[in-house]
């Protein structure tokens, strides 16, 4: 499971010109799922994200988490995070899970984030052509892969 976590001043997701999710200060999480992902990956990644100390404290030091700030989150599925670009110029998405595997894992991840954060989490619509708008704050962008926890 791969996540790209962006600290945002605001973010929203639009599908067919309808705004379906919107947050102020918080995190936009782009989530990629592969077949080998499981409940352990979901729990580990969710807890890692809500506890990442990437928000400024009163001294301007990145020392507070999303939980500390009481910020919001949006989780958007993004199969392209598992693109392989080793050969040629056309990315391969063979490592990305098909919808029948990815949708239940995505939904479980959202539920886990809501439990860990203690509030509702915004989402995109799995498989939809989404427009994601954000104001990256910092900019702060962190990539996390549950298969490589050293990063």
Features:
alpha/beta, two-stranded antiparallel ribbon, 24% helix, 151 residues, 8 strands, six-stranded mixed beta sheet, globular, D-tyrosyl-trna(Tyr) Deacylase, Chain: A
Topology:
Blueprint (H helix, E strand, L loop, with lengths): L1 E14 L2 E6 L2 E7 L6 H13 L3 E2 L5 E3 L1 H4 L2 E6 L21 H19 L4 E2 L6 E16 L6
Parallel strand pairs: 3-6, 6-7
Antiparallel strand pairs: 1-2, 1-3, 1-8, 4-5
Helix pairs in contact: 1-3
Question: What does this protein look like?
Answer:
Helix 1 (39-51) packs across helix 3. The protein has a single domain (2-145), classed as D-tyrosyl-tRNA(Tyr) deacylase (D-tyrosyl-trna(Tyr) Deacylase, Chain: A). The protein starts with a strand and ends in a 6-residue tail after the last strand. It contains 3 helices and 8 strands. Strand 1 (2-15) and strand 2 (18-23) form a beta hairpin. It has 151 residues and is an alpha/beta fold. It has helices at 39-51, 66-69, 99-117, and strands spanning 2-15, 18-23, 26-32, 55-56, 62-64, 72-77, 122-123, 130-145. The strands form 2 sheets. Strands 1, 2, 3, 6, 7 and 8 form a 6-stranded mixed β-sheet that branches. The model has no long low-confidence stretch (mean pLDDT 95).
Radius of gyration, Cα only, in angstroms?
15 Å
In the CATH hierarchy, the third-tier topology is known as D-tyrosyl-trna(Tyr) Deacylase, Chain: A
Q: CA-to-CA gap between the ends?
A: 13 Å
Task: Please tally the helical runs, counting DSSP H or I stretches of 4 or more residues.
Answer: 3
Poorly predicted residue ranges: none
Helix-strand topology string: EEEHEEHEHEE
CATH architecture: 3-Layer(bba) Sandwich
Largest sheet entry: 6 strands, mixed
